[in-house]
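Q: Can I see a sequence and its folded structure?
A: Here is a first one.
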Amino acid sequence: MLQTGGPDSHDEGPSDTQRRIIEAAGEIFADSGYRYTTIRAICRQAGVNVAAVNYHFGGKKNLYLAVLRYSRFKAMEEHPFDLEDFATGTPESRLHAFIRTLLARVLDKGVGSRFARLMAKELIQPTSAFDQIIREIINPSFAFLSVTIEQLFKKAVSRERTGLCSISIVGQIFYFYLSTPVIRALFHKESFDAEEIEAVAEHITRFSLYAIERMAAEDEGDGR
């Protein structure tokens, strides 16, 4: 798992000093990326001695992993969603819940939104933590979405088809985050409130369901 590391790590969560370092590092990592973030800058913002990062986390890499873990926890705390539950509700309702939750995590301006910024930086400039991120964060979400999409088709569908549909849905969501200047120019908005986020989630869900229904109907027509 993404652990904090260091001699002060414990199950009940980070200490006050660790939290200050994590909070400071989270903002700087999210703004500058891992490569261009320095321990000195983090410690200056956190108000701690430079040696504190090595003492509490064992270095920059372990601190980065701790920041990812903490930011992910905050995102899940603010917008919870159980990826393990494949059986609750209809595929349509699960798809909408997934889209709404991920969109809220991406567009909300709370502490949890930092995780989206960190992930965006990671996808553009992968670090040594990338394999762990794929395994622990992206794979579970991809599996949930793929199973949900598979259940929307009336007949058996290939993994390639469900995978492409999953990427298309997630792409719609992250466009609203990655293309903020375009959204600002088109909609004349700096941010979306909760009601507007829900409206966007409803649109993406309906748009995606219609596309999947059309593909399923075409497959039926082909007799496959």
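Q: Show me another, different protein.
A: A second, unrelated one:
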Amino acid sequence: MKVTPARRRGLADEVADRIREAIFTGAYAPGAQLREVELAAALDVSRGPVREALLKLEREGLVRGAWHRGSMVTSLSTVDIAELGSLRGALERLAVEQVVAHASEADLAAIEQVVARMGRAEDAHAMVGCDIAFHDAVYAAAHHLRLAEAWQAIRSQVHLLLLTRIGVSTEGYLEHIVGEHRELAGALRVRDAEAALALFAEHRRHAFEVLTEPRPGTPASGRRG
């Protein structure tokens, strides 16, 4: 049996990176249309790499395709939010336990460096990026390969969840989020698993409440993120 020649996918990956960055910086909000022709023109590429890139982002959960409607940035439903919250909670519990047991001084310093960077974030989108970087550092400090892979599988969707959260409301976000993460890092620093688990749960609860609280004129059962 012969192995078929590999195809170069570098361009499609680069296009996916550019579109992902545009979503994460707020250029394309949840629900926004992603038209192949417009993206190809903006990125100065053919439609083929754009189509491949959108399929890649669809596998990440950032993009959804609909028949006759093309691709759009995913809008998270209440079910999506609940499922991401419960899965994230399960992963973070193991991550905290592993960090407390195995993190090195360099690992803890890397987590604290992200918190320091949060203090310099210029806007809510930059702060969300720092929030994700904080959790990246926590999972790296856990030294658990399969846990890190599980985090990577939902990372883009969690980023989208946090973007959805600031899309609903930024009230108090920039003022309190740095302090929350400073407390999280502090509990990990002293290796207090019980306190850290409670603080991580509270951190998730804040975002969940913002996302699930019914807004005037919006039926709670049909609410979209």
